[in-house]
Automatic annotation (TrEMBL):
InterPro entries: FN3_dom, FN3_sf, Ig-like_fold. PANTHER family: FIBRONECTIN TYPE III DOMAIN-CONTAINING PROTEIN 7. This is FNDC7 protein. It holds the Pfam family fn3. Residues 1-88, 176-261, 262-346, 430-517 form the Fibronectin type-III domain.
Amino acid sequence: APDIPVIDQAYSKLSNSITVEWRAVPEAINYMLTAEDGDSFVETVVKHSPGTVTGLKPATLYRITVRSINSGGKSQPSPFRKVKTVLAAPILFARSPSCDTIVVSWKAVHMAAGFSVSLMRSDGLGRMLKQNTTNISLIFTNLDPGTLYTIKAYAWNANGMPGDDFTYNQRTRPNAPVDIKLAFDSGALKAVVSWMPTEGAFTYSVTVSSGLLELRCNTSSASCVVPSLQCSSEYYVSVTAFNDAGSSEPTEAVSLKTIPCAPVNISIEEDEPGHLLVSWSSVSLGHYYVVFVKSDDGLEVHCNTSYTQCHFQSDCGFTYFISVFAYNKAGQSPLGDVFNYTTAPCCPGDLRAVFMSSDTVRVTWAAVRGADLYETRAAGGSGVVLCRDTATACTLSALRCSTAYNITVHSFSEARGSSTSCAPQYVATAPCSPEIKNISKEGLSVISVQWQPNNEEATYVVTARGEAGLWHCTSTRNSCTLMDLPCGSAFSISAIARSPAGQSLPSYSIPLETAPCCPNDMILTQVTQSVTNISWSVGRGAQTYVTTLESPKGQAKCHTLQTFCLLGCITCGTNYAVSLRAISETGLTSSCTYQGYSSSACCPSGVKLYRLSNNGIRVFWQASDETINYNADLHGSKGNFSCTPSLGLSHCDITRIPCGDVYTVVVAPVTNKGPKLTFCPKKIYSVTCSGSSVGM
């Protein structure tokens, strides 16, 4: 083992350690330092001198020994030295109650007889302040505001030996900010508060108070924005600076008056057409008011007043947008409710009424501003006819005929209602349609029409309308006569009434049929001795015909759809009265008379031929009437021959007739006009060329 070391000195500079110095021991590698206080010990191995034993108790007496160590082991402890550790450092607590004061305090230190406390700006400027005391607190005054100070303190014992020191940094509170400035933003209802920066201030707090309301804004800069201010309010603004020591005193409050609130209880009245009265409630902190009135065509006017009402001119059919602002030195109030007021629409102009029919009038007018709907009212007689439409035209139907109406067009808007005092227009409806009561025939082509007069000062026109044309008659009374109506025609009879107001609708039509026309031409032809053929031209309007031949000896008649007829049972040689009745489809009859007709004379009987000596033939017959002349005709292959006797004779001679032929012989009465009669009996005779007589 190495030699025992010898302690040169041992001392304590810190309350938890003792430093030992000794002479070096040859071949010693390490040294073990031991500190014992009777209750415990602490060992520390070091390489060389000096060495320090730590972890000791302050103000405690220790026995210090040193042992040398090498690979052979440890030496015996050196002779001990008694050393006492110094006092513990006081644990400081500091605060700055004001911007120029720091209060330092600490807890009592064991075995301490007094304390020494020094204070100095941490930046080294200024002088150091030092105080000794036996108390456990000190106050430093007249310090710089917002300045960081370094505080150092230690305790000493009864021998004046100082103990450990303790260092503490403490800042004084900042001074109150100065040069407070306010900038109010009326649009955003916020205020910008600014000030000169304060030495040593870390942050600032702006307090904005009004009554029980208090707003705060914290910032590290030299300005702060206080939002959400209320209109029509007076605020008191103060600024306090803060640092880690605390806050400064608040600045003296600065008054801030905000813009006035938007006026409320706005009322708009049209006290008379063309005049608007806008009124509102007074606003706190409002010095004067401006009312803006903008019409929907873009024109804007305004009124500046210190009162709470304004008058404006207005026009019909306009919508006005009205806003009221209050003003003071802080600026304009926020935009409140924008009211719109729509004046009553204008009365429609360019009113025109045109009759579309006797009971229907179409009313048109020019569109007007502000009208959403139009009401057309026709008042007349004992009733009112209404028409509502969004268009600028309306058709009033079912008007009473022959009635005077006052037509008024009112315009309506949803916002304001109806226009007023619109001038009416007078119109009169056309006369009422007459009602035909009776149609009577006054003659063959004369018709009398009667109707019920139901209008005042009206002229009535009766019209007969048919394929044959138009016939009219006019009267201001209740009847008129249609003249010269053609026969065999169908007519529609109607009547209208005319007045200065117009023309009525036609009355209901009544059909009228005139009797059929008599045929213009009639031809009678005797077909046989007892049959006569009658033919006639068409009679307009006739469907059937009844023809009659009448004589004292009898009557022959036929009823036919045709324009001809065969009449039998005709007596020859007789005068007949000829008549015809034309009958229409509905049974109307026209009686027609014509020139009398005489049937042809009767054919002779007993016709015989006798041969004469001069190669002639005598034709003999028995006459039915001696006053009738006859004619005899012979027709053969060798020639045709005829003869006519003198009146009263019943035979005649034909000379130089060739024999050896067969002749057809006809003896017929001679007519005054027309062809020979061909219906008398024919006799056939053969004339031979031998003998003195002719064969039958």
